[in-house]
Amino acid sequence: MIKLGQLTDSEIIERCRKGEVRYQERLYKRFYSYAMGVSLRYAINREDALEIVNDAFIKIFDKLHSFDSQRPFKPWLRQIIINQTIDKKRRLLKAECELPIDEITEPVWENADAISLLGYKDILQMLNTLPEIQSLVFNMYEIDGYAHEEIAQMLDISTSSSRVYLSRAKEKLRKLIEELNTEGYGRAV
């Protein structure tokens, strides 16, 4: 008898495709931490992140038949989590107005040392202080590598709005880092 821990991702996925519930549970447990890591970047709090992950796995089990088993599972999972987040927030984003853009300026990071001293939790806390749209655009562009055109299409906003949201997010993050630096964060570490 094969132990569940000895099965490869492909073997577990194949058993999930056959509707075997215990393998669905195993797939969920195997990728839960990764999924939560992605989701926490986008969610406001842990409860929202968990809801996104659970909704994403429901969608995964429903669409697993369309997954190409010749490709890695993690990128597919990541994309579903991001899409799930966007779907959840899309209603809120449509209510926000389009921003006019004259010129975008990139902030200059003078305190690179302060940035290197920040931990994962510090960065998540800073991202959570941003307005949702700015945090979403920042994550999609800076962390997940989407182009402004892709972000605009997925969020149903203009490309220029995507650039403005990113610029404003970076500016707010820069100010937060400067505040930490002047409060002695760098000296305390």
TrEMBL record:
This is RNA polymerase sigma factor. NCBIfam families: sigma70-ECF. The keyword Transcription regulation applies. Residues 27-91 form the RNA polymerase sigma-70 region domain. One of its GO terms (molecular function) is sigma factor activity. Residues 122-173 form the RNA polymerase sigma factor 70 region 4 type domain. InterPro entries: RNA_pol_sigma-70-like, RNA_pol_sigma-70_dom, RNA_pol_sigma70_r2, RNA_pol_sigma70_r4_t2, RNA_pol_sigma_r2, RNA_pol_sigma_r3/r4-like, WH-like_DNA-bd_sf. Belongs to the sigma-70 factor family. ECF subfamily. One of its GO terms (biological process) is DNA-templated transcription initiation. The keyword Chloroplast does not apply. The lineage of its organism: Bacteria, Pseudomonadati, Bacteroidota, Sphingobacteriia, Sphingobacteriales. Keywords: DNA-binding, Sigma factor, Transcription, Transcription regulation.
